[in-house]
Design a protein that fits this description.
The chain has 206 residues and is of the alpha/beta class. It has helices at residues 2-7, 15-30, 42-54, 66-75, 79-84, 99-108, 114-122, 139-150, 164-167, 183-196, 198-204; strands at 35-38, 92-94, 128-133, 154-159, 176-177. It is globular and about 50 Å long.
Length: 206
């Protein structure tokens, strides 16, 4: 991570919050939880990016656990080759990619609650909800945060402005200021943080 902050000094001001977010993710995965991500526009694309990196290897190939590899070898004649084509995954869901339910709920109920509905349906205590909002005032992200808080989910908010309408929800949200940096750099910092705490990271997959 040290080299990462040297390459992107704009992230230095967010170092503590990024590290707190990494710790939150590690604890979530150690305890069998998952990550739910949402945003709009470019943040919508970033949501897919985040989930894509969590669901497969990032910088390092994630081998399957030995027990899973052995199970495939026992079940299938080509089990070893089968296992070699899979990677360890950290469960994550991009709420933005659920096209059918998003369009149906927006049409039938209330557009600003599209992500809130999905958090309500999928969120379980011990999960983490990650909301991305460049303006800091995306109503559908705010409503999703309210549901996440009510369900006891960990909250991790990427924002540009103060997002004052969310601050009452939780005293220890890792606020990440995106005024001068892209979501993608924040995401990569989180992945790097997971990678550099490799012993804890391996425990997430056990």
């Amino acid at each position: 991570m040290k080299n990462f902050y040297e390459r992107f000094p704009a992230l230095q001001g967010n170092k503590e919050n990024i590290e707190n977010a990494c710790e939150m993710l590690i604890e979530t995965y150690k305890n069998g939880g998952k990550v739910l991500v949402c945003g709009n526009g470019g943040s919508c694309a970033d949501s897919d990016h985040i989930v894509g990196e969590l669901m497969k290897g990032f910088l390092l190939r994630r081998k399957l656990q030995a027990a899973d590899t052995a199970k495939f070898a026992e079940m299938f004649e080509d089990g070893a080759e089968f296992a070699a084509n899979l990677q360890g995954a950290l469960p994550a869901v991009s709420l933005t990619a659920q096209t059918a339910i998003l369009s149906a709920f927006a049409n039938d109920v209330e557009p600003s609650f599209i992500y809130a509905q999905l958090v309500y349906a999928l969120g379980r205590q011990g999960d983490v909800w990650m909301g991305l909002s460049t303006s800091g005032n995306s109503k559908n992200v705010v409503e999703a945060a309210r549901v996440a808080r009510s369900l006891g989910l960990g909250l991790n908010v990427g924002h540009d402005l103060s997002l004052e309408n969310l601050q009452y929800l939780h005293d220890n949200i890792p606020w990440i200021d995106e005024a001068s940096i892209a979501h993608a750099l924040i995401c990569d910092a989180l992945y790097m943080g997971l990678k550099t705490t490799i012993e804890e990271y391996k425990k997430c997959l056990s």
